[in-house]
Amino acid sequence: MSKRGNRIRETLSDRVTTVIFYAVLSVIGLVTIFPIIFVISASLSSPIAVNAGQVLLWPIEIQFEGYALILQNEWVVTGYLNSLFYTVFGTLLNLAVTFTAAYALSRKDMYGHKLLTLYMIIPMWFGGGLIPTFLIVQRVGLIDTRLTLIILGAISIYNCIICRTFIQSSIPAELQESARIDGCSDIGIMTRIVLPLSTPVLAILALYYSLGHWNEYFNALIYLNTREYQPLQIFLREILILNAQFDMRDTLNLEATMRRSYLVQVMRYGLIVVSSLPLLIMYPFVQRYFVQGVMIGALKG
């Protein structure tokens, strides 16, 4: 790359490299977006066309019968509200616990912070298992309550380490010390200085945590018995199982049975769209923080 005056002139090798980069990124983008387009198109297409493999990019004979069967279930709205409740309040608790723990571990003047970090990392390698966890949850009275899915997994040690590393590498210790000299307390330093500057990493962690809460299935299956408390994933599974139960020996209604079996395939794609739609809507609002976080790390030093 050569300079002429104030202009930068690209050489032939620079242009070829740029074209190659754009071509590779375009291929990666197409490979990534194709499954999303296919799932949406299949959920809107004719069941016969989907089972025949005729759907690739665009819907064929657009219809909403699969979505109609999904939304006919009265528990879908209940599941949506429950999942939204668990996602919002669970994520807020996750961020509060993760950020406060990460800030404490990032302070080099905290006595025993290295030993405490090692102590927190050990559960990442060794876990107690399902039965001990169930006994503890039962002993503290969290069986079949809404708080179960919010409190369980209140902190991810991996995410805590990410947040701690971000604070140590991106927020100068001198800035915190100058605030202390000006009379700012530890709580004030954390809330007025570290917290605003940690917005990029907190946005990323919010996406990670909310994704886990929204897709929560196993803990709800184990610890929740009341249907009014169960999240969306439980009800979507029940819808799929109930509509897949049909008797092929019923020769009198063979045509209806075959159509129903085809419709089950379309419903599977519809269930994916229904369960993924809130996260797909949220992601564009968080995407800019990914770029900002990368740039902060790149400009450090």
Q: What is the name of the CATH class of the largest domain? A: Mainly Alpha
Query: Total helix count?
Result: 14
- What overall form do the CA principal axes indicate? flat
Structural class: mainly alpha
Number of domains: 2
Total beta-strand segments = 2
List the helices and strands and how they pair.
Layout: E1 2-4, E2 7-9, H1 12-44, H2 47-51, H3 65-72, H4 75-106, H5 113-125, H6 130-139, H7 147-151, H8 157-170, H9 173-181, H10 186-197, H11 199-214, H12 218-223, H13 232-244, H14 254-299
Helix pairs in contact: 1-14, 3-14, 4-8, 4-11, 4-13, 9-10, 11-14, 13-14
Tags for this model:
single chain, 301 residues, mainly alpha, MetI-like fold, 2 strands, disordered C terminus
Give a description of the structure.
The chain has 301 residues and is an all-alpha fold. The protein has two domains: 1-63, no CATH class; 64-299, MetI-like fold (Orthogonal Bundle). The protein is built from 14 helices and two strands, in the order ββαααααααααααααα. It has a two-stranded antiparallel sheet. The longest helix is centred in the C-terminal third of the chain and has 46 residues, at 254-299. The model is unreliable at 296-301 (pLDDT under 50).
Offer a quick outline of the entry:
With 301 residues, this protein is mainly alpha-helical. Helices cover 74% and strands 2% of the residues.
